[in-house]
C-alpha cells in the first residue's frame, strides 16, 4: 500500500502576502511526514515530524509564530493520538518549549496521564530532557504587532486573528 499523509495548516482566511509561505510550509510538512512513511516509519512518527515542521515555521500559529496570551507570552497546547491503540497525550499552557508536539507524545508514551498542563508539563519536560527555548525566540514580529493591536481600547481580538489560522489544504475561503 502506498503511504498517504494529509497536512493542513489550520482553518480560516489567509492574506495574499502570507499565502505563498503558508502553502510552502504545508507542503514542506507533508513531505517530511511522507518521507518518514516512505522509509517504513510509523504514522505516529510521520505526524509528529509534520507538526514539528509547522511548529518551527513562523507562518503558522504553532510553536514559533504562536498567538500571544494577554501577558504577551507564547503559551501553547498540543495533542497527539495513536490511531491503532487510541492512546493519546496532550499538553496545555506550555511555555518555552519549541516543539510541544514532542512533549505531548512523551506524555502519551511515558505517563499514565492524558494531559499535563502549565507547571506540571514544564516539570515533565525538564525531567524528559526537553530543551527550554527562551520565550522571546518563539515570538515573531507579526505576533507582537497583533498582540499590541489587541490591547488597544475597543479592539476586536477575533478580527485581528482571522487571518492567523492558516489555510486548510490550500483553501482560502471560510466554508
What does it look like?
This is Asparaginase and isoaspartyl peptidase 1. Belongs to the Ntn-hydrolase family. One of its GO terms (cellular component) is cytoplasm. A three-stranded mixed β-sheet has the order 1-2-3. The chain starts with 15 loop residues before the first helix and ends in a 14-residue tail after the last helix. Helix content is 42%, strand content 9%. The radius of gyration is 17 Å and the shape is globular. The protein has one domain (16-162). It has six helices and three strands, in the order ααββαβααα. Mean pLDDT is 88; it is low at 163-175.
Blueprint of the fold:
Elements lengths: L15 H23 L4 H13 L20 E6 L6 E7 L5 H11 L4 E3 H10 L13 H11 L5 H5 L14
Parallel strand pairs: 2-3
Antiparallel strand pairs: 1-2
Helix pairs in contact: 1-2, 2-3
Number of strands: 3
Measured between the Cα atoms of the first and last residue, the distance is 32 Å
Side by side, the strands of the main sheet go: 1-2-3
Structural class: mainly alpha
Mean pLDDT: 88
Main sheet attributes: strand count, strand direction, barrel closure? 3 strands, mixed
- Please give the share of residues in helix: 40-55%
How many structurally independent domains? 1
Low-confidence stretches: 163-175
Shape: globular
Number of helices: 6
Taking Cα atoms only, what radius of gyration do you get, to the nearest Å? 17 Å
Write the element-wise H/E pattern from the N-terminal end onward: HHEEHEHHH
Give the strand content: 5-15%
Key terms:
175 residues, mainly alpha, 3-stranded mixed sheet, 6 helices, 42% helix, Ntn_hydrolases_N, Asparaginase and isoaspartyl peptidase 1, hydrolase activity, Peptidase_T2
Amino acid at each position: 500500500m502506498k503511504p498517504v499523509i494529509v497536512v493542513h495548516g489550520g482553518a480560516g482566511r489567509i492574506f495574499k502576502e502570507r499565502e505563498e509561505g503558508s502553502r510552502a510550509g504545508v507542503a514542506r510538512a507533508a513531505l517530511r511526514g511522507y518521507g518518514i512513511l516512505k522509509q517504513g516509519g510509523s504514522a505516529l512518527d510521520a505526524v509528529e515530524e509534520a507538526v514539528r515542521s509547522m511548529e518551527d515555521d513562523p507562518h503558522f500559529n504553532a510553536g514559533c509564530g504562536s498567538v500571544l496570551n494577554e501577558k504577551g507570552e507564547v503559551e501553547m497546547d498540543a495533542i497527539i493520538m495513536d490511531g491503532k491503540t487510541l492512546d493519546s497525550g496532550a499538553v496545555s499552557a506550555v511555555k518555552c518549549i519549541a516543539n510541544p508536539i514532542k512533549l505531548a507524545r512523551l506524555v502519551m508514551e511515558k505517563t499514565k496521564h492524558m494531559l499535563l498542563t502549565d507547571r506540571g508539563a514544564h516539570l515533565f519536560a525538564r525531567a524528559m530532557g526537553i530543551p527550554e527555548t527562551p520565550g522571546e525566540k518563539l515570538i515573531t514580529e507579526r505576533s507582537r504587532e497583533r498582540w499590541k493591536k489587541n490591547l488597544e481600547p475597543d479592539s476586536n481580538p477575533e478580527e485581528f486573528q482571522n487571518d492567523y489560522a492558516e489555510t486548510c489544504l490550500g483553501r482560502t475561503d471560510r466554508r
